[in-house]
Structure formats: structure tokens, C-alpha cells
Amino acid sequence: MQNGISRRRALAALAGAAGIARGAQADWAKIAAEALGYLRGYLRIDTSNPPGNVAPAVAYVAAILEKNGIPSERLEAAPGKVSLLARLRGSGAKRPLLLLSHTDTVPADRSRWPQNPFGGEIRLNRLWGRGAVDMKSTGIVHLMTLLLLKRNRAALAREVILAATADEEVGGQAGVGYLLEKHPAKVEAEYVLDEGGFSANRLFTEDGVVHGVSVAQKQVLWLRLTMEGTAGHGSQPTPDNAVAALARALARVSAAEAPAAADPVRRLMENRLGALAQNRFASAIQRNTVSLTTLRAGVGEPPKENVIPSLAAASLDCRLLPSQSSEEFIAWVRQVAAEPRLKVEVTHHAPAAPPSSTATELFRRIESTLAQHAPRDRVTPYLTPFGTDGNQFRRPDRHVYGFFPVVISAEEAMSMHSDAERIPVEPLQKGLQIFYEVVEGICA
Ligand SMILES: [Zn+2]
After folding, report:
1. Distance from the alpha carbon of residue 225 to the mean position of ligand 1, in angstroms
2. Does residue 259 register a pLDDT over 90?
3. What's the gap in Å between 370 CA and the centre of ligand 1?
4. Predicted pLDDT at 152
5. Best CA proximity match to 216, nearest among 412, 407, 416, 393
């Protein structure tokens, strides 16, 4: 926490620098309460994907925009797969800024949750729900930023585009993929602010708050592993049992340490932060990883106990550092599995795009705004260990950053996709203010 004097000085500096005093003088507690109300309503709309029907969520966001005098546009790739675009026009002096969020979430198993995942409930100063971290909270910060720019009548040098898209959790084909293919001019921008960034305590390092601004992502590589063997009666074991052979191969792959690869973003992080933490999030930033995620065998449904199946299959979710060759990685999987009959197929590969530069007006604005509000915290560019829609936008002249300056704990950051996804309520206010000031700073 900052003391009152440095806080006031920071706000005065900001107001002076931007030439707009309204943002600095705003009642942020009231604004945060408004945003929290929107977020609770947003979390109550079940947008689990599959099936990924986000039309009600898009209608919800559109209604808030409309009430605030901002028109929006619905772009529907398929039934229920609707993306929303809204824009505040700029003078055209600078190229647009795109605020990108997805409206769908992964599904939630209600029976495993401590709270209703679609209740928008606040318990223990945390807001619980599927999408609380990934990424409805970011979506509402984007929405609130647009509303504030409008209310403050900010004179914009660049257009600000809000995109709330469908389908991210299943690859983005009917969301960002559709927008980029069918309506690229509508989402063309110099900068994209997306998910994937975290401002968190003890997430990146063993202690302290670090604001990780994502500038790159790991590659996503999904492999399907299959074994064939002789089918027969369970009473008469076969020497080439497909289930047994696959299990042995998977055990060897799971136990092996994936090969290391040099990574320039990781080097940048270590230069700024020193040694990184060894929790599962920070570990994933530092190396190639493999998770065994599905395993299927058996004949019939439910599978029959007394039938030796002729086929067994599994999938591996591999996440590779940007510089890792996927062919070499697959060769490593084959070698470690040490099972000549194992068939390895690529079911999905999203290669890495070159990292976005940190020598930009937006990155510098993020750093200076954080320095004013939280001088003791550290800021670093970083490599998101998972894939997001933003990667599809990355181009040498289009800079994409994962940035969400609401400070959360390492546990809360890692609660995304879990049975206890939650976000702390109190830091929302400061995070929202920082986000707004960054956007106003580079657009006004
Ligand atoms: Zn997400």
C-alpha cells in the first residue's frame, strides 16, 4: 500500500501528464462497486464451452453498453457463437487499441464446487464462479474502461475497440478466428490488450508482488497416442495387450523430464526478477511440459471387463517453449515411450508467434502507471504458459499484451479452470483504476 502523499502526488502527475483530470478525480470506490455488480451478473450467465452458447452473455454486455450510450455490433459465426464489438471513435492520429476478452468459459462440475459456480456469490471477500479469473473479470474491466472513457468524454487520439468474443476455450475458430477471417478491418489495431497477464503475489517469484505482462505464449501441441493389440477373451491373456502396452509407455513419458529449450523471454524475466518460483505456474513458464489428459480403452459402454480390446488411446497436452522444434519434441516422446508399435499423431498444434516488443508506448505506459501506483512491486514481460486468442493477433506491427493489474494470490491465479475459481474483491478497485489510466494514457 502507498501512503496518501505519494498517492496524491502520483495522481496529480498523471492528471498533468494526460491533461485529463477527470480520471484521477473519479470516485473509484463507486466505480469499482458498479463494476463488481456487472461482474456478478456476468458470472451468473452460464457460458460453459462446450456447448459455448454465449448469446445471453453478449446480450448482457450489449445492454450495459446501450444504457451508457455506446452502440455495439453482434457478429455470429454459428448459432450461439456470437462475438460483440463496440468502439469509441478516435481522431485517427494513432492506430486503434483493441480490448480483447472471451465470453465463454470451461465447464464446471457443480458437485465439486464449494459455491455455486454460476451464483456470483461473495464469500470471505472473494467472488467465486466459473470465469472469475478466466476471464469475465477482465472482460468487465474492459467494459468499465470503455464506459469511463465515454463518461469522461475523453478526446481519443486512437479508436478504442471492445471485443467480447465466443469460443476461445475450444480454440477460437468461431470467435477470434471468424473475426480475423471475415471481418479483419473491424479488429485491426496497433495494440491488443488480452488475458494471460497476472499481477500476483508469490506467483512468479517466491515473494513479493510481480506484475507479469505477457508478451509471448508457449506453443500448444496435442498428441494422440494409440496402441493396437490382439483382442480376445479376458480369461486368456494375450502377450500384446494394447492397454498394458499403452500404460507402460505412458508411465515412461510421465516420469521423464521434458527436454529444456533456451527462451529469450525467460531470460528477460530472470534478468528482472532473479530466480523464478517453483510452483506449477512458474515452473511451466520455464520448461517444456507434458500432461497426460485422456485415456480410453475397452469395448462397449460401460466398457466390458472380460473383453481384451484391440485398441487403447491416450492424449498428451504438450506445451512447448517458443524456440522448441515440435518435430524434435515428438521424436523425444517416441524415444522415451520406447514402444515401437506406438502410433503418435498430432491432433492440434498452435506454433508460437514472435514475442511482442517491450519498446512500445503501451508497454512503457504500463510500466510508468504501475510505478506510480505500486512503486514497490516489480514489473516484467513474461511468457504465458497457456494459449489465448491474443496469439492470433501477434504481428511485428501489432503488439499484444496480456495485462490484468488486479493483484491476486498465486492460489487465486492457479484457480482458473479449477473447482474453486475465485478472485479477491478488494483489489479490483486499484486494478481497474490502473487499467483505465493506462488506456486513457495511450489513447487520450
Ligand atoms: Zn481465457
Report:
1. 27
2. no
3. 23
4. 95
5. 393
CB 190 within 8 A of CB 324: no
**Model pLDDT for residues 112-140, shown as the tens digit of each residue:** 999 999 999 999 999 999 999 999 999 99
> Phi and psi (nearest 5°) for 318?
-105, 135
Residue 161, pLDDT score: 98
Is the confidence at residue 80, as pLDDT, over 90?
A: yes
CA 239–ligand 1 middle distance (angstroms): 45
Question: Looking at residue 18, what is its pLDDT?
Answer: 44
How far is 97 from 87, CA to CA, in rounded Å? 10
| Ligand 1 geometric centre to CA of 443 (Å) | 25
**Between the CA atoms of 375, 35, 138 and 79, what dihedral angle is there, to the nearest 10 degrees?**
-170
C-alpha 134 to ligand 1 mean position (Å)? 4
pLDDT at residue 105 greater than cutoff 50: yes
106 near 48, Cβ under 8 Å?
yes
CA dihedral sign of residues 205, 210, 214, 215? negative
- Residue 135 CA to ligand 1 center (angstroms) comes to 5
Q: Sign of the CA dihedral 334, 336, 339, 340?
A: positive
How far is C-alpha 263 from the chain's CA centre? Answer: 20
pLDDT value for 11: 45
From the CA of 105, how far away is ligand 1's center (Å)?
Answer: 7
Q: What is the DSSP string of 193-216?
A: EES--EEEESSSSSSSEEEEEEEE
pLDDT class of 25 with cuts at 50, 70, 90: low
Mean pLDDT over 33-41 rounds to 98
Q: In this structure, are residues 35 and 136 in contact, taking their beta carbons and an 8 Å threshold?
A: no
Task: Give the residue from 47, 238, 13 showing the smallest Cα distance to 132.
Answer: 47
Query: What is the share, in percent, of the chain residues with pLDDT greater than 70?
Result: 94
355: CA distance to ligand 1 center in Å? 19
CA of 91 from ligand 1 middle (Å) equals 32
Alpha carbon of 364 to ligand 1 centroid (Å): 25
